[in-house]
Amino acid sequence: MSQYFASAFRRRPNEGWFRAGNFSLTTVDLICAVAVFTMFVYGILGAARWSELVFAPWLVRDLEVWRLVTW
Length: 71
Prior knowledge:
Layout: H1 2-8, E1 18-20, E2 23-25, H2 27-50, H3 57-60, H4 66-70
């Protein structure tokens, strides 16, 4: 039974989207980079300006279409 459990956590070959030297860009790398980027944007803009970027369907209907992109 333990061999099946251990095989679930074994590292598999992971081909990224593209390579830059020895670094292979994967989906996890992209998600982490976007998360860190949004933390910096939140820190720079502050909470008041950040609320203007948040997705709210009723505000999109009022033609604030940038909320579709920044969501």
